[in-house]
Amino acid sequence: MSFDRITIDPEQMNGQPCIRGMRLTVRRVVEAAALYLDRAELKREYPELDDDDIRQALEYAAESLDDQIITLGAA
User: Which residue ranges form the domains of the chain, and what is each CATH number?
Assistant: First the structure.
């Protein structure tokens, strides 16, 4: 999968993945997407983002998760 909107620069934001070289991390975009369920409200709060930025941030986060089974303790 190609992430042309995700940039990683060791000199910026401690090397965290960012959106298009901005000081806006993928993590922050994913958090904001969870906080602002209304996409229009999210875009008002972060006008520099467009739909492709948000989509790629979510895809990048999903791709970064490992597909493994985690056994939880019995309650």
Answer: 6-64 (1.10.10.10)
